[in-house]
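Discussion board: Methods & Data

I've been asked by a reviewer to show the raw model output for two of the constructs in my manuscript, not just the figures. I'm not sure how much to include, so I'm pasting the format here to get opinions. Each protein appears as its amino acid sequence followed by a line of C-alpha cells. Is this the kind of thing reviewers expect to see in a supplement, or should I convert it first? Here is construct A:
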Amino acid sequence: MKRYRSLKRLTEPAAEPVTLAEAKAHCRVDIDADDTLIQGYIRTARELCEDYVERAFVTQQLQMKLDQWPIEVELPRPPMSNAGTTTAVIVSYTLSDTGATATLPTSVYRVDRDATPGVVRNLYGGTWPSNRDDQNSISVTWWAGYDDASSIPQRVKNAILMTVLALYEGRGDAQLPAGAKALLDSVSWGQYA
C-alpha cells in the first residue's frame, strides 16, 4: 500500500456502512449493554477495512498536500463521490512570489471521476500555475466514498461485520480476519508501485 504523508480526513462519515442492529445480529448479541462498545467496533472495523484496500466506503472529505505539481493529481481512496453537494474538488496553492494562498479556478482543470482512483488534470494544453517551492504548498480537497449504503458492495459489508465480530470476541484485538481480507481483496483496486 502506498502511504501519503499528508493525506487526512477532514469530514468524518455521517453514517457507517453497517448498522448497530446488523452488527449485533452478526455477533449474536441480544442485550443493549454493549451497544456503545459495538458502535465503536463498527467504526474501527470500517477504518481497518478502508485502510486495507485504500478505499473510502462511506462519504467523507479528504485532503492531500503536495510539494510540487505532478503531471496529474491522483486522488487516493476511491471512489470519488458523485452525488449532491459532495462533488466539490478544491485545489489551492501557495503563490511563488507573495506566499499567499490562492484557489485554482475550476475552469482551468478537469476532474476524472471515472478513473480509479480519481484524477485532477490540466485542461488540454494547459499548465499548472507556479507555486512556492516548499513543503505542502499545494492542497487538494475532495469527497470520496460510495454515495449511499446500498451502493457499498455486500462483500465489503460482510468483511466489516466479520471484523466487528473479531474485535468484539477479542475485546479490541485490531486484526483483520483472514476471511475479511479475502473478501476485501476481491474489491481492491490495485497497488501503487
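Construct B, same format:
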Amino acid sequence: MRFIDEAHLQISSGAGGNGCRSFRHEKYIAFGGPDGGDGGRGGDIVMISTDRRSTLLELQGRTIWRAKRGEHGRGKQQYGKGAEDVIIEVPVGTRVFDNETNEILADLTQNQMSWVAAKGGQGGKGNLHFKTSTNRSPRKATPGQAPEQRRLRLELMLMADVGLLGFPNAGKSTLISAVSAAKPKVASYPFTTLTPSLGVVKMGLDHSFVIADIPGLVEGASDGTGLGHQFLRHVARTRVLAHLVSLGEHDQGAVAGGDPEDSDIYRRYRALREELERYDPKLASRPEIVVLTKTDLVYDDDIEAIRSQFSEMTGREVFVVCAPTGQGLSALKDALLTLLSTLGEE
C-alpha cells in the first residue's frame, strides 16, 4: 500500500441564496403587500475524521471541493432551500493547516471528530422581512452572503502509543511483526521501509497498546535529508519511543578493546538522538527505552557487556531482543506496558 500523508486542497463553501423582492398580485386582493421569501443557506465544507481511512491518498486525486449555493427566495413567501453540506472524510490523526499562513486550524485526533472547514453563506432576506407599519411596501431585499474560500494543507500523523525508531535495517519491521499482527514486508534490504506500519500488541484479555514502525531515519533528517520531516512528524504523536540499535556484524565497529563511545553502535544512537533534539526538543524528552536487536549475530559473551555499556552511556533502560527467535520480547512488551501505564492518559 502506498502511504500518502500530505494533501493540498482548495475548498469553497456555498454562497447564500438571494432574498426575493416580490409583491402579492392576485385578483380581488388589492394591496396584497410584499411576499418575497428568504434565500437558502449555502452548504458547508465539513471534515470528519474516521478510522475507516488510513491515508490521504483519495484526497490527492481530488484537490478542489465546492459546496452548492442555497436557492434564491421566491414570491408567494417561498423560501429558498438550503444546500447540502459537503463531507470530506480524513483519517484519524489528520492536522489541517492554512496553506498561506501555516496556522494550525484543526487537529482531528479522535474517531468521528468534525470540523467546519468553510461555513456556507447565510441566505439573503426577502422584502417580506422589511414590512413595517410605516413601510408597507418595502422594495428592499438583501443578497446572500458570499462563500468562504480556503487553501488548506493536510498532514497525517500516525496515532500510536509506542514509536519504533532506528536507522534503516535496524530490525523495526521484524520486531513489529513479531509482537503484533502487523505484517510489513521484511527482507535484508540495505535501505529503509517506505510505508509506516501500525500494530496492536495484545497483553492478555484487558490490556493492549498500539505500536508504530516509523520508517528508518538518516543523519540530517531534521534538515529534510532523505525522508526527513515526512516521518519525523509521525514520531510526534507517540507517547513512548523505543530506539532500536542493531548489533549486526557490520554494525558493531569497535565494541571491545576501545572506547565504547567510539563504537559504531553508540555513534548511530547519538546521531538519531541529535536529529530528534534538533527537530523538536520536547519530542526528544519523551520517555525512551533502548532495544538492542540482531543479537543472534553477536557472541553471547559480548551481549551482556554491550548492554551494560550502553545502559551506562545512555542512562536508559536497555533491552536485548532477537525478534526471529522471540528472545527478550516478553520482557520488552511488559516494560512498554508498564511505562505506558505510569504515563496515564494524555
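Answer (T.O., handling editor elsewhere):
This is acceptable in a supplement if you add a one-line summary per construct. For B, something like: The longest strand covers residues 149-156.
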